[in-house]
Each structure stands twice: as C-alpha cells, then as structure tokens.
Amino acid sequence: MIAPHQPSARGAIVTGAAQGIGAATAIQLAADGNELAVLDLGANSCSATVGKIVADGGRALAVGADVSDAQAVESAVQRVAAELGPPVILVTMPVHRREPIRGGPGPPAAPAPHGSVHYSTSSPMHITRSMTRRSGK
C-alpha cells in the first residue's frame, strides 16, 4: 500500500527495518516527511512497519533483500527508485544473524556462538554504491 507521492518528500532506505531500532528509525523518518523503503530479508517481515507508516499518513514500501548480496541490493534499490524516486537517505542497521554472512572479504566466517552477531561491513557499501548510481552525483 503506497500513498500518493509528496513533492517535498525525500526517499529513504532503512535496512533491518522490520523490527526494533530499524523499525523505530523508519517510522520516525516517515513522521518527519520522508518516503520510506523498509528493507529487511523478507518483504513480508516489513509489513508491520509499513502498515504503521501508512496508517500515520506516510508513504512506505516493503522491500526484501539480503544486504550482503550486491545483486540483491542493486535490484532492491532499482525498485525503490522506480516506486519512490531515487533515495537520498540511508540508515543501515547491523545484521543480526547467527549464520555466516556471505560476500565479505576473506574466508567464510564460522557460525557465531550463541548470542553473537555477524555484521557485514560490505552491506552499507553495496547500498551506497547502488544509491549513488541513481543520484546522478
């Protein structure tokens, strides 16, 4: 569900926005007048965040993508640009996963011990590169 575009709104992507701090960040950015791409591993997991934004009168899009996968990120940003316009704001949340994240430099990571988190340092770079291609800058 996407509300009509507001000319003064800026497009924003928030990764890890299905819940927690990511969801709260997306909701606040929308309340500040930005149009949101709520991005997480699965688009369905973003429905509560998108529903809250839309119910509050904002414009949001649920996008599923593995941010450690450069091609998945490129496709996600293409979709965001097509549906909301080129995004100009990016907020990335740590990837909370117990299994290794692919796509980083060096050998594959071993599974994380209980309570540990893998963070892909390449994920923000994938999104930034893809956004920059669309900004014309």
Descriptors for this entry?
137 residues, Rossmann fold, 4 helices, 4 strands, globular
Choose one word for the global shape: globular
Order of helices and strands: EHEHEHEH
Mean pLDDT: 80
Secondary-structure-based class equals: alpha/beta
**Cα-atom Rg, whole angstroms?**
15 Å
Query: What's the story with the biggest beta sheet?
Result: 4 strands, parallel
State the helicity in percent bands: 25-40%
Brief rundown of the structure:
With 137 residues, the protein is of the alpha/beta class.
Could you explain how this protein is built, in words?
- By secondary structure, the protein is an alpha/beta fold.
- It has a single domain (11-135), classed as Rossmann fold (3-Layer(aba) Sandwich), CATH 3.40.50.
- It is 36% helix and 15% strand.
- The chain has 4 helices and 4 strands; from the N terminus they run βαβαβαβα.
- The protein has helices at 20-31, 47-55, 70-84, 122-135; strands spanning 11-15, 35-40, 60-64, 87-91.
- It has a 4-stranded parallel beta sheet with strand order 3-2-1-4, sandwiched between helices.
- Strand 1 (11-15), helix 1 and strand 2 form a beta-alpha-beta unit.
- Helix 3 runs parallel beside helix 4 (122-135).
- The longest helix has 15 residues, at 70-84.
- It is globular.
